[in-house]
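It is worth pausing here to work through a concrete case rather than discussing structure prediction in the abstract. The textbook approach is simple: state the sequence, then state the predicted structure, then interpret. We follow exactly that order.
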Amino acid sequence: MISIVIPVLNEALSLKQLHAEIVQVAEAQAWEFEIIFVDDGSCDASWPTICEISQNDARSLGIRFRRNFGKAAAIRAGVDRARGEWIAMLDADLQDDPKELPQLWQQLQQQNLDLVTGWKRNRQDPWHKRWPSFWFNRAINFLTGMSLHDHNCGLKLGSRELFASLVLYGDRHRFITVMAAANGFRVGEVVVNHRPRQFGQSKYGLSRLPKGLLDLVTISFLTSFNQRPQHVLGLVGGGTFLIGMLGLIYAAIYWVVRMVWYASDPSWPPVHQRPLVFYCLGALLLGAQLLCLGFLAELIVQRTADRSLPYQVRESTSNPTGGPPM
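Step two, the predicted structure:
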């Protein structure tokens, strides 16, 4: 079975057409499938539309959040409810073409991959979305060593095992490819058709660029040092501590030499008047704090694990037999 997870935020006008296109493609491929709409706190008619779709098609179900928790939480909720061995994702705005799903499936099987993501090579978006995305993908590849063109494409298809291994919250949906590769899964991409937006307006703009850069640094750190934070904190802290210690040793030697031979020489000012001493003390204290922080981080990693859900479900249209309980 393929479970198709669709995060929804104020896309009421697109849902029926999207559902019809998905059903047409899946039936043509003779897939066993289910469609999971996750309403991420919409304030339009998205939820009534999802309920109507679910009533008319037993293969579709809806999940409604109490408020807007973000796209990553919506994806995670869909994955938690999914019953399929394979999970597909696509956006609800009709820009992702469901006709590309068979191509993703073919690529997944032929190359023995765990995840295939789309590449919107001919992206139908304004420049203020295309250019930040271009440089953002470049930054991801530079920091992670990957070579994908479009990490944040909403059209993805992968194994249930892969999606179940991801910790999704906040804006982490943009880094599914990075986290999957860091966990040892095989990731590929394929060029897909991208369509102009028909209804409504985009929920994202330039305002998310600074947040994305901060998230990128965080993800880069977590994927490299998630289980060994002391490796980076200890390295930086130890280096800073060593620099501070060597500087203070030099200051101590300077103090002894001045007291013994150059106490009256004005070219040898007292050690407490030299800025080097204060810089070295600051480096020593900072290094000690980073080392202690690293030890605490190691202790937290060893003894705790956050299993709390990043969302709250208000209601759902159905809970298919054999699926996870509500």
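Step three, interpretation. Residues 321-326 have pLDDT under 50 and may be disordered. The chain is about 50% helix and 15% strand.
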